[in-house]
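Lab meeting notes turned into a lecture example. A postdoc, R.K., suggested we walk through two folding results consecutively so the class can see how the record format repeats. The first protein's sequence and structure tokens come next.
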Amino acid sequence: MAEAAKKETNIVTMKDVIFMYSSVSRPIEQLNTDNKPPISAPTSPTFGLEFHSYEIKLLLTEERFKGLKKQFKAAKNIPHAKEHEKADLLAKYDFLNEADLADDMVLIKFSQSCLVGKADKSGVRRESYPITQIGVKGKVQDIHGATIDQETSVGHGSKGHFQFKPVEGANGLYLYPHLICITELIEYVGGVEEDLDSLGLEDLAETDVSAVGKEIAEKQDADAAEAPAADILPMKDPVF
């Protein structure tokens, strides 16, 4: 019997982005403007996750957004991106630095539904994977030694790298958030001052974001091998 070809995992990396909002593990309720009925049965233990998503909002320069739009022009979240001028952003958000902004910026949201696929015979749908969150140093710290893990509250204006997974399904092309790697954390809530000398920064190698993202994606693909999955777009693993 011929050995099945290994499925290639395609992940897109966007380096040095500004995170305007991050919810990697906490479900966010989404508007059901079309009044669609829930797919899960009311008796499902995860029924409360219907119409909830994990989501990331990024602030990109207009130039970078145009490159993204050119390659993924059919993606469902592209048309909902919002344009902003630098002056307006600086007036509205005091956590932003003028040096990090171009004259024209674009805010774009990437989201992943908490429940995916059809319900089984018991009316239960499969839960999706939360967005993985790591640090740029040893996967556990930002460049200043702040601890980064899955539960870290990432404040508006934090910087880092972002990965998404393009998936072509029955309803079109979606760009699903996959991983965020924090390089400079702005804490959402205040905390005690860290003793940076005790954190061993010199012992922590810089995280290879692409390698980590592929490793996570391959594990998730293997875990979901028995469940129906949409075809992944045939592409390399670009870095924007």
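The second example is placed directly after the first for contrast:
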Amino acid sequence: MKMKLLAFTLLIVVFTFIGCSTNPKSISELKFNGIVAQSEKEPGTLYYLIGNGFNIATSASSTDSIVNSWIQKHPEALVQPIYAFGKNEVTMKFCLVFDGADTLNNYLIRQGCYEANAMRIPNSWNEIIVDDRRLIESLPGEPFFEIYLGEEAQISFQEQITAAENKAKKNKIGLWK
């Protein structure tokens, strides 16, 4: 019953994206290197699977192979930006990667690859982790911050991620061994 409720909640989150100010991309448009992806059409944009601590988050050693395996099993998955920040020609986007009711982001947490906090969605420039802000602040120009996901969907996503972390802890996998 819990799983059905989570799947239903996830579908609500996915349907919420229809009203987002950005359109989802096909996963085939991006080339992944672990949790980071790029598109040939947008050379200055980096797509991330984690939302907090892009450069410092602790991950399980198996993370890259888990990402690659999930992508191979879900070739029709979509990539939906959740928020973006950057300056001028450099943009960093935290994305939800989903295929039906399954998301790569939740899967990474369920597998113990990251703590739930790595998926936290900031609501302003000042809520972005200091190391990530410093990287962008070192570039010329004015920084920007854009969020594409509504508050209700953010709360639902965070609840799912927290539940996934609890499952990983209970099963003692990944970081929780």
